[in-house]
Amino acid sequence: MTHEEFPTEHPALVTCGLPYANGDLHVGHLRTYVSGDAFSRALRTLGQQTAFVSGSDMHGTPIAVNAQQEGVSPESFALRHHEQYEETFPRFNVDFDNYGHTHEETNVELTQAFVRAWEENDHVYEKEIQVAYDPDADQWLPDRYVEGECPYCGEHARGDECDEGCQRHLEPGDIVDPVSTLTGNPAEYREREHKFLRLSEFQEYLTGFINRMEGTSNAQNQPREWIEGDLQDLCITRDMDWGIDYPDEVSGEDDLVLYVWVDAPIEYVASSKQYSERVGSDTYDWEDVWQDGESEIVHVIGRDIIQHHTVFWPSMLKAADYNEPRAVCATGFVNLNGEAFSTSRNRAIWADEYLQEGFHPDLLRYYLATAAGFERDVNFSWERFQERVNTELADVVGNFVNRALLFAARNFEGTPDAELTDETETRIAEAMDDYEDALNDYDVRAAGETAVALARYGNEYIQNAEPWKLDDEAAAPVIRDCVQLVKAVTILLQPIAPEKAEDAWAQLAADGSAADATIGDCLQAPPEHFPEPDGPLFEKIDDERVAELNEKLAERVAEATADDEDERDETESDADTTTDEDNTTMTEDTTDEFEPLADERISFDDFQALDLRVGRIETAEGIEGADDLLRLTVDIGVETRQIVAGLKQLHDIADLEGTRVVVVANLEKAELFGVESNGMVLAAGEDADLLTTHGDAAPGTKIK
């Protein structure tokens, strides 16, 4: 890999974490794939040779378990979902150059070749270990066939991961008090020989890798505890029938398959190989990317599989003499109305449902890609979706494109014969620089915002210039600038909203397509002639529509919750709450007094992302027209900030000056009653009890 700024002279490969072929897709799943698609499109806009690949993850115990419950083969079960994903992604304009799956021959052959290379390089050994066994079912219990207690944190865990507790990867034999998911009976541990990759041998290499790896900070920081701690070797085989066989000629074993996290990431290689074979190595050479030359491999994944891509995967590549990735970008999760998606309770916005409601896919793409930074969680609600579509896409982008092209077509039959003004040329050039900087920071959100910011500038420009009040000679330079701005906005918007960008490109009557345009085309002259636009790019969403959608969601969740409670009532006893000696619930005196604790935990990386500082209120004054708001100036050490806070009715204003407070310093700026607020002062409860420090910590002190 290189660390040159994009675009480089070397081929890039962008991949997305493989969707597990085990269920329907909802909008939370789509965030990773939309982000990966937008990033790969944006790299091409910079002029970077790029391929975008992924595939369905077809193996592992969950698929085997669910297939068994349906009475079908694991292959047919997984293929059904793979075909569904293959159809769904293009409907959201996620355009993979190749989308395969892990059970295809290309991946099978490459995976076994990887293992042979590990064997030849002495990176694999055999060891007898404890493996859970169900004597009633007469079956070994790999991964999710066994559940029990996590040996690290004591929480309930499944066989390969403590998914409800510390999130640690678990090896066979780790689970305490194992229980078979097949029969519900206690399992027993028996000795069994398995294969291990000498992961511990790569500890020094991984330390260097994580220090030079680019991408999001959560992907760079989360694995350090693993890499710098007691790195354990990885068991790479499982006792089951469904999966890729361990190479017989190497091991002599015919009843072991490879662990799903061996063959899954190798699909990145297999999928790029399939693409290369389809288009020819002169167009794209997969071997140059993975083995021979310098390359720019970028993995876009969900936050829950960081360790697999920053510990297991680079070791697997190194052990087989393949190139390491340049960057790993881990997206945050998507919540629904502030809570996690729950597929069991049907509390989700399903991919098919979104499209059936008649919404354009680019609206959701824009929301998912720009609602938060790559690694931050996104909270989806129909109200917030409506707000962003209406105020940003419709009012800003759509309004500017329509009014600029409409005026140009009606008054000049296209682009006026005038020179682009220096001011507008500079503004577009600055947007191009911001766009390029954002992509080199792996910030899809910031890249998308450049298009909206440029359209906002265009709206202000045309509004201030009022060309409808000018004669043609005076109006020509204004409209010439605006048409150029439309072209630039279209090019910069294309990675986020590709279909809508093509509509704008067609309205401009520009040659080729917006997808083929590069960033340099932002300042190339637009077409001389184009007709009046046939309508706005974006339609607003009205309040009645949002109310209808919320009602549908509430009804669906209530129905699923009722079904879930009915099932629990059939299996749970009436007295299953923890009680004290008086036979009253232990929390009886406090449950109505405080809000319940949030079920969803945040990661340590998320907490570290908050820049909490000690501040000192220097001045406080009311804001005209606002009953509750105060304008504060707060010294936070490195600078003095203006912050708007709802303290007016709850504190004596004169007493606030000199008070030490806790400030969220990296909160996005907001405007309240026409006053900019640059940060947030923290307070507890309805009485706004200000958080302060016990001692005399100086303003600017970071809170940890």
TrEMBL record:
Q: Which annotated residues bind ATP?
A: T343
Point to the regions of Basic and acidic residues compositional bias: 529-538
**Residue numbers spanned by region Disordered:** 519-538, 557-597
Report the InterPro entries cross-referenced here. Answer: aa-tRNA-synth_I_CS, Anticodon_Met, Met-tRNA-synth_bsu_C, Met-tRNA_ligase_1, Met-tRNA_synth, Methionyl/Leucyl_tRNA_Synth, MetRS_core, MetRS_Zn
- Does the keyword Nuclease belong to this entry? no
Which domain of life, per UniProt?
Answer: Archaea
Which positions fall inside the TRNA-binding domain? 606-704
- Kindly give the Gene3D superfamilies that the UniProt entry links to this protein: HUPs, Isoleucyl-tRNA Synthetase, Domain 1, Methionyl-tRNA synthetase, Zn-domain, Nucleic acid-binding proteins
Q: Where in the cell is it found?
A: Cytoplasm
Q: How is the cofactor bound?
A: Binds 1 zinc ion per subunit.
Q: Where is the composition biased (Acidic residues)?
A: 561-597
| Motif 'HIGH' region mapped to chain | 19-29
- Tell me which UniProt keywords the record has, alphabetically: Aminoacyl-tRNA synthetase, ATP-binding, Cytoplasm, Ligase, Metal-binding, Nucleotide-binding, Protein biosynthesis, RNA-binding, tRNA-binding, Zinc
Q: Which GO terms describe its molecular function?
A: ATP binding; metal ion binding; methionine-tRNA ligase activity; tRNA binding
Cofactor(s) needed for function: Zn(2+)
| Amino acids binding Zn(2+) | C150, C153, C162, C166
The chemistry this enzyme catalyses reads: tRNA(Met) + L-methionine + ATP = L-methionyl-tRNA(Met) + AMP + diphosphate
User: What's an example Gene Ontology biological process for this entry?
Assistant: methionyl-tRNA aminoacylation
Q: What is its EC number?
A: 6.1.1.10
Question: What GO terms fall under cellular component here?
Answer: aminoacyl-tRNA synthetase multienzyme complex; cytosol
The entry assigns this protein to a family as follows: Belongs to the class-I aminoacyl-tRNA synthetase family. MetG type 1 subfamily.
Q: What does this protein do?
A: Is required not only for elongation of protein synthesis but also for the initiation of all mRNA translation through initiator tRNA(fMet) aminoacylation.
PANTHER family of this UniProt entry? METHIONINE--TRNA LIGASE (PTHR45765), METHIONINE--TRNA LIGASE, CYTOPLASMIC (PTHR45765:SF1)
Protein name per Swiss-Prot or TrEMBL: Methionine--tRNA ligase
Q: Which organism is it from?
A: Halarchaeum salinum
Q: Which gene encodes it?
A: metG
